[in-house]
Specification:
This protein is of the alpha/beta class and about 450 residues long. Among the domains are: about 65-200, Leucine Dehydrogenase, chain A, domain 1 (Rossmann fold, 3-Layer(aba) Sandwich), CATH 3.40.50.10860; about 220-370, Rossmann fold (3-Layer(aba) Sandwich), CATH 3.40.50.720. It is built from 14 helices and twelve strands. It has helices at about 35-50, 55-60, 110-125, 145-160, 180-195, 220-235, 250-260, 285-295, 310, 350-360, 365-370, 375-385, 395-420, 420-440; strands at about 65-75, 80-90, 100-105, 130-140, 170-175, 240-245, 265-270, 275, 305, 320, 340, 365. The protein has a seven-stranded mixed β-sheet, with helices on both faces. Strand 7 (about 265-270) and strand 8 (about 275) form a beta hairpin. Helix 6 (about 220-235) crosses helix 13. The N and C termini lie far apart (about 45 Å).
């Protein structure tokens, strides 16, 4: 049996024909739960209706242009051979090459990567960077694999999708449970076929092979910049504000650090195990040290334990959901007391909750704007790779801030002009840009 599959010989055997129609976004039947793709379609449709978007354009934008599904064997350390399934969804490339992360997670599904690839299209358009949207993943629990098994899985998957990726076609990046080492394996595997050193085929790489300074902190930095911009418009003095952050991973921890630098008092943080509340403030360094020592934020000295659900409803000025999707719903949105919500995670707020928050006067910075710092710095890494010229951390940081501030200004302006919440404003702005590119290119 072939352990390490080679390049795909017949892509048509692996491409899934999408037959989704507008009617699939109809309300779910009783007992059926909305998927992330249902949410993505509903958010898109809200903006499309306000824009009176051409039905032909809508039909194109509602579906990924291509989805590659692969099944591949991996030989385990004990000699067993396990079969894994992976996907790569490419939504739209009117503005430039596809761009999006690859995640390794036991809950990866085709609906998830479809939704995330669509969100990446809007995220890149909002940020004003020349990329379209893609997303990929493998259905696997990477925590149960040895390093050798993880490397085999990574290389096998990337070898199979290498037919549709490339520095000018589709540029993957790290996502959930993948990191710079995974990207190094991906780039190296691609280089075997390319017979070159194509550093620009992935972003989020180690510095030694073309990675960018500032990449690790970029998403959290972007969250902080958008909060600062929103506060300026809302006449909020950040030095007199309090904040709660759900999720103390890469995004949440860096958001904490940068918001603290801006003068915000963070009073609560949480991770998957639970949260900690200190009304007189939690310093970034103390919680980072505690988590490094214990593996979680529970039992932080001087703090009160709280649940992730309780954290969302705290009486704070700023709330940063930076953990899981669908945590703010129609059931708890009415209990949210923050004046400003910045989505560090992808899809943490249900469409029905958006309406409730908007009516309450809560300003919500949507994920496709608030957490676009990661893809924006990935773009900067890609540019550095292509020109073989690398910038200092200060240069990268300044360029990122410029991108984020411009994106926020455009979304704020669009939202105000249409009297809609910032998510719908972001969608209107992004869809407009993608539609214009499609028309100029002659697609519609």
């Amino acid at each position: 049996m072939e352990i390490f599959p080679g390049r795909v010989s017949n892509l048509e055997d692996c491409l899934l024909l999408e037959t989704t129609s507008k009617h699939e976004a109809a309300p779910m039947s009783m007992g059926m739960q909305k998927t992330q793709y249902d949410m993505a379609l509903e958010q898109f449709q809200r903006a499309a209706d306000i824009m009176k978007l051409d039905p032909n354009v809508q039909e194109i934008l509602r579906k990924p242009r291509r989805i590659l599904s692969v099944n591949f064997p991996v030989k385990m350390d004990d000699g067993r051979i396990l079969l894994y399934q992976g996907f790569r969804s490419q939504h739209n490339n009117a503005l430039g090459p596809y761009k999006g992360g690859i995640r390794f997670h036991p809950n990866v599904t085709i609906d998830e990567v479809k939704a995330l690839s669509m969100w990446m299209t809007w995220k890149c358009a909002v940020a004003g960077i020349p990329f379209g949207g893609a997303k990929g993943g493998v259905t696997v629990n990477p925590k149960g694999l040895s390093r050798a098994e993880l490397e085999k899985l990574s290389r096998s998957f990337f070898s199979l999708i290498s037919e549709i990726v490339g520095p000018f076609r589709d540029i993957p990046a790290p996502d959930v449970y993948t990191d710079s080492q995974t990207m190094a394996w991906f780039m190296d595997e691609y280089s075997k076929n390319d017979r070159n050193n194509p550093f620009a085929v992935v972003t989020g790489k180690p510095l030694i092979i073309g990675g960018s300074l500032g990449r690790d902190s970029a998403t959290g930095r972007g969250v902080s910049v958008t909060v600062e911009e929103a506060a300026r418009h809302l006449k909020m003095d950040l030095k007199k504000t309090t904040c709660a952050i759900q999720g103390f991973g890469n995004v949440g921890s860096y958001a904490h650090m940068f918001l603290e630098e801006a003068g915000v008092k963070v009073v609560a943080v949480s991770d998957s195990k639970g949260g900690a509340l200190k009304k007189n403030g939690i310093w970034f360094n103390e919680v980072a040290a505690h988590k490094k020592k214990t593996g979680n934020v529970l039992s932080l000295p001087g703090s009160e334990p709280i649940t992730n659900e309780e954290l969302l409803e705290l009486d704070v000025d700023i709330l940063v959901p930076a953990a899981l999707e669908d945590v703010i719903t129609d059931e708890n949105a009415g209990k949210i007391r923050a004046k400003l919500v910045a989505e560090g995670a992808n899809g943490p707020t249900a469409p029905e909750a958006d309406d409730i928050l908007f009516k309450k006067g809560v300003t919500l910075i949507p994920d496709i704007l608030a957490n676009s710092g990661g893809v924006s710095t990935s773009y900067l890494e890609w540019v550095q790779n292509l020109q073989h010229l690398y910038w200092s951390a200060e240069e990268v940081d300044q360029r990122l801030k410029t991108i984020m501030k411009k994106a926020f200004a455009e979304v704020w302006k669009t939202s105000q002009e249409n009297n809609v919440n910032m998510r719908t404003g972001a969608y209107i702005y992004a869809i407009g840009k993608v539609t214009e590119a499609m028309k100029i290119r002659g697609w519609v």
